[in-house]
Amino acid sequence: MAVSILLSYSIIVSNTNIINMKEQQFSNHQRFHPLFHFFVAPLSLLLSILSLLMLTHSFTWYGLLLAMAFICLYLTLFITRTYAKQNQDRIIRSEIRLRYFMITGKDFSNIEEQLSLAQLVALRFAHDEDFIQLTASADLPGLSPEQIKKSLKSWKADHLRV
């Protein structure tokens, strides 16, 4: 019951944040998922630490099993989040390639080879004019993701990033 209430709350807050979010720009583009960032992750870390402390205080097989279970829970949270982020990064790469081809009619692979994943992720916030200007610039490989984002004149929002 409590889990379903928390999950419902999390979905409502996440959807409300997407709908009510101010115009996205560099200063407010990072997003937190309240259920994950402020409840599940800290609680699972706390339970893992407490179970290890209890285990060192007085060893029992039940305590060992409990500690292993909480550590597995904590690791599972971050492994699944990593999988989601890696998948989204692959999608962003494909999106950038397609977008460049649609705008210019050219292959993006020569430019992509010079850029890090973080730079490609930063490019997704650029509107078409900024996108073309940045990808044509010889300075792009030397810019940090933060510099790329700050150089944008027109910000293209991405409210669905994991």
Structure in a nutshell:
About 70% of the residues lie in helices and about 0% in strands. It is an all-alpha fold. The chain has one domain (about 1-15, about 35-150).
Give an account of the 3D structure:
The protein is mainly alpha-helical. The chain has one domain (2-15, 33-150). Helices cover 70% and strands 0% of the residues. The protein is built from 7 helices and no strands. It has helices spanning 2-20, 34-57, 61-104, 109-112, 117-123, 128-136, 145-150. The mean pLDDT is 84.
Number of strands: 0
Q: What is the tally of helical segments?
A: 7
Average pLDDT score: 84
Q: Summarize the main sheet.
A: none
Task: State the domain count.
Answer: 1
N→C terminal distance: 26 Å
The secondary-structure element order is: HHHHHHH
Topology:
Blueprint: H1 2-20, H2 34-57, H3 61-104, H4 109-112, H5 117-123, H6 128-136, H7 145-150
Helix pairs in contact: 2-3, 3-5
Name some characteristics of this structure:
162 residues, mainly alpha, 7 helices, 70% helix
